[in-house]
Write a structure and sequence with these properties.
Elements: H1 9-18, E1 28-29, H2 30-37, H3 41-53, E2 57-60, E3 63-66, H4 68-80, H5 82-98, E4 102-108, E5 111-118, E6 133-135, H6 140-146, H7 151-157, H8 174-187, E7 190-193, E8 201-208, E9 214-222, H9 230-250, H10 260-268
Antiparallel strand pairs: 1-3, 2-3, 4-5, 4-9, 5-6, 7-8, 8-9
C-alpha cells in the first residue's frame, strides 16, 4: 500500500532537516540547509524557527546545531531498548547477589525517571516503580547525571537562587550542589544515607555509552538509614560499580584507564 499521499509535507521536511546533522556535520547554516534540502530559504526559516522553539535546534549567531530535545528523545529510546534490555539480567544478578532492590534511571531535564526496577523478596513496600520521576539534584541517581555537566550547563539547568528542598539533606544552593557533585565525580559513584527518604540509603553508579557520556545510572537500595557495618558498605559499592561497568561495556564504553571497580577496590583496601 502506497502511503505517501498521507505524508505531512512540513513534518517530512522538518525531520529531513534534523537528519542533516550527524557526527561529521554538527553545525549548519540556513543557506546550507536550504541547499541540501532543495527548498526555499523562507521555508527553511519557518522550519528552523519551529524546531528551535521546541528545543530540537539551537542557534549560535547564524549557525544551528541539534538541541537538547533531540537528546531527550535519544534517552527515551535508549531506555526503551538498549539500557533496559541489556540491563535487566545485570540488574537481576545485582539484586540476587545482594538481596536488595535495584533500579536503572535516565535523566529528563531536571528530573530522573526510573526505566527499570527489580524488587527483592522483602516485606518492604516501595512507592518507586518504572516511570517514577524524581528531582535530579535531590537524589544520588540524579546527581550522577549532573556530574557530567559543565558549570555553565549546571547553572542554566538550575538558574534559581534557592533550589527546591525535598529533605533536610537536599542542597539548597547551586554552590552546595556543585560541592556534592565534585565529591561524586572524584569517587566515581554516589552514596546517600537518608538523603532523599528517611530510613533509606542508596548506592549509585553511572552508566556510560561509547561516547563516554552518562546516559543512565544504576542504584541499589538499602532499607536502613545507614549502611553498616563498613565491610558491607565496601562490598556493596564494589558490586554496584561492577554492575555499572558491565552494562557500560555492553553499551561499547571503553575507559581509557583501569576500570573504576579496580581503582575503588584499591582505595577501599
Amino acid at each position: 500500500m502506497n502511503t505517501s499521499r498521507y505524508n505531512v509535507p512540513a513534518l517530512d521536511r522538518g525531520l529531513k532537516l534534523l537528519q542533516l546533522f550527524d557526527r561529521s556535520q554538527t553545525q549548519l547554516s540556513a543557506p546550507e540547509i536550504s541547499r541540501r534540502l532543495g527548498i526555499p530559504r523562507s521555508t527553511v526559516f519557518r522550519l528552523i524557527q519551529t524546531l528551535e522553539s521546541l528545543g530540537f535546534l539551537e542557534r549560535t549567531d547564524t549557525i544551528y546545531r541539534l538541541g537538547p530535545a533531540v537528546l531527550r528523545l535519544g534517552f527515551e529510546y535508549i531506555a526503551s531498548l538498549e539500557v533496559t534490555d541489556l540491563g535487566r539480567p545485570i540488574l537481576e544478578k545485582l539484586r540476587d547477589d545482594t538481596g536488595m532492590p535495584c533500579q536503572i534511571a535516565i535523566r529528563d531535564g531536571r528530573e530522573i525517571a526510573i526505566a527499570l526496577r527489580v524488587s527483592a523478596p522483602s516485606a518492604f513496600s516501595s512507592n518507586i516503580h518504572v516511570g517514577t520521576r524524581m528531582p535530579a539534584h535531590a537524589t544520588v541517581l540524579g546527581r550522577l547525571f549532573l556530574t557530567d555537566l559543565s558549570e555553565d550547563e549546571l547553572a542554566r539547568l538550575f538558574p534559581e537562587r534557592t533550589l527546591p528542598a525535598h529533605s533536610p539533606q537536599t542542597p539548597r544552593t547551586l554552590a552546595d550542589l556543585s560541592r556534592l557533585l565534585r565529591e561524586d565525580r572524584q569517587r566515581g559513584y554516589a552514596i546517600s544515607e537518608a538523603f532523599f527518604e528517611a530510613s533509606i540509603s542508596a548506592i549509585a553508579a553511572p552508566i556510560r555509552d561509547a561516547s563516554g557520556r552518562v546516559i543512565a545510572a544504576i542504584s541499589l537500595t538499602v532499607l536502613q538509614p545507614r549502611i553498616e557495618p563498613q565491610d558491607l558498605r565496601d562490598r556493596l559499592v564494589i558490586q554496584v560499580l561492577g554492575a555499572a561497568a558491565e552494562l557500560s561495556e555492553r553499551l561499547n564504553y571503553r575507559p581509557a584507564q583501569r576500570p573504576l571497580t579496580e581503582r575503588t577496590e584499591r582505595a577501599i583496601a
